[in-house]
Amino acid sequence: MAALVSGLFAAGAIVAAGPALADEAPQHSGGASATLDGLTIFDRAVLHDGGRDQELPAGLFEMTVDGGGTLKTYCIDIHNPTQEQAKYLETPWDQTSLGANENAGKIRWILQHSYPQVDDLMGLADRAGTGPLTERTAAAGTQVAIWRYSDGAGVEALDPAAEKLADWLQDRAKDVEEPRASLSLEPNAVSGKAGGRLGPVTVRTDADQVTVVPPADAAASGVTVTDEAGKPVTTAADGSRLYFDIPSGTPDGSASLTVQATTSVPVGRAFAGVTRSQTQILAGSSQSTVSATASATWAKAGPIPALSAEKNCAKGGIDLTATNKGDEPFGFELMGFKHTIAAGESRTVTVPVPEDQAYDFTITGPGGFSKNFKGVLDCKTTGSSGPAPEQPSSQPSPATAGGTSGGENLAATGSSNATPVIAGIAIALVVIGGAAVLFVSKKKTPPTGSTPDASSAEE
Q1: Sorting pLDDT into bands at 50, 70 and 90, what band is 364?
Q2: Hey, which of 119, 330, 360, 434 would disulfide with 324, CB 3.0 to 4.6 Å?
Q3: How far, in Å, CA of 378 to CA of 178, rounded?
């Protein structure tokens, strides 16, 4: 029976079971999602690059969180412009340029010990020996210190006090570990036979409590979300183990649950653009809406897959994980390679994607099954590429993504109105000499139904 993977760069086939489970949003491990409003508190700096000096603004951006809340962020990719009103997702460090940056922990230390986390500017100036600081110069000095570690950039603040703050922060920075996600579900996809509970899906959060939103058609289908004892739940906490309870006789299908909370996102969390836009790191958060989603697929018999994907910056691609909880092998073809997953086994295929390349592919199968994966692989800082990007002089006020009033050019941290160019190049993007590079791992699925780690055994 034919099935397919369609998209901007991938082609192949997957055989799957169950009715439609379409997910058109970019895959997200959970947490906050937000829209970039612009550069709001900033002063000037100068970038020394390739024998050229370029003046540019340096300071704090602001984002509006979907569902409510405000985030303040600094840039961690000086040569990459922002996109106006770009959408951003809270993202683990290893899915951004921070994953390969040995100084990532020092950036978090700077965030914890400077503005806006430290809002006593007189005290900060006294400790750093800078002379008087304003919000603008404190933000500029903090951004400059971050750029020196995020990009290895030769950059200086123009204001003397801001420059002294940057030097003080850079010299004293220590390694601090990555903060965990504000909210996530592990794993975010499970599968199994009807007539039992599928899971567990474990809640990870710093919030005191999360709200559990059941499947949209729960009343009609009889599918419920329960705890380990089988009791229906509407709230959960960190460490809670959730299950999809699928009554016997339920037609083959799929469903999803969502958990949501209001909490402060931890300082140091990375935010990556849904489209290509300068990666950000969190400097401060109001009480904000965060969420995470997990899906379940079930059937009476045959192969029963659970599909999930995440960026793998270490291997330069997207990890597509397929777990088979059915009683027959689950076969699929991807990028011209055929794979078979025996009952009770799981396999992870790393699909190579070029840096800064948008990807968007949908896996479909019989019975209307559909799973979409999209995003942009942004694993590296852009690096020196000549002059930092300029923006039109007609750019609006600072309310837009990095725009400045009076027609002032924003340079490296500026907004660009250019729509990201998404090349519709098919398999040639990831095939060299007629052979795609795939990394595959296979192991037995643990009884709990958790998603396995993606080790690299090339098939």
Answers
A1: low
A2: 330
A3: 19
Mean pLDDT of 86-103: 96
The dihedral over CA atoms of 272, 276, 280, 286, expressed in degrees to the nearest 10, equals: -70
Residue 255 identity (one-letter amino acid): A
The pTM of the full predicted model, rounded to 2 decimals, is: 0.80
Q: What average pLDDT does range 43-63 have in this prediction?
A: 96
Integer Cα distance of 216 and 231 in angstroms: 19
State the DSSP string of 295-326.
EEEEESSS--EEEEEEEETTTTEEEEEEEE-S
Alpha carbon of 359 to those of 87, 175, 342, 352, 387: distances in Å? 16, 34, 28, 10, 28
Q: How far apart are CA 38 and CA 278, in angstroms?
A: 12
Confidence of residue 52 (pLDDT cuts 50, 70, 90): very high
Specify the pLDDT at position 384.
45
β partners of residue 363: 5, 371
Q: Which two tokens stand for residue 115?
A: 């503005």
Asked if 295 contacts 306 with a C-beta cutoff of 8 angstroms, the reply is yes
CB atoms within 10 A of CB 393: 9
Which alpha helices (DSSP H) does 180-286 contain, by range? 218-221
Do 400 and 85 form a contact (C-beta atoms < 8 A)?
yes
Q: Which two tokens stand for residue 375?
A: 């995003």
Average pLDDT, the chain: 80
Spatial contact of 270 and 279, defined as CB atoms under 8 Å apart: yes
Instruction: Note whether 42 and 139 are within 8 A (CB).
Output: yes
Q: For residue 292, give the H/E element and its range.
A: strand 287-299
Residue 54 token pair = 């370029």
Q: What are phi and psi of 251, to 5 degrees?
A: -55, 150
Q: Whose CA is closest to 56, among 388, 383, 279?
A: 388
d(CA 107, CA 89): 19
For 272-282, the pLDDT digits (tens) are 999 889 999 99
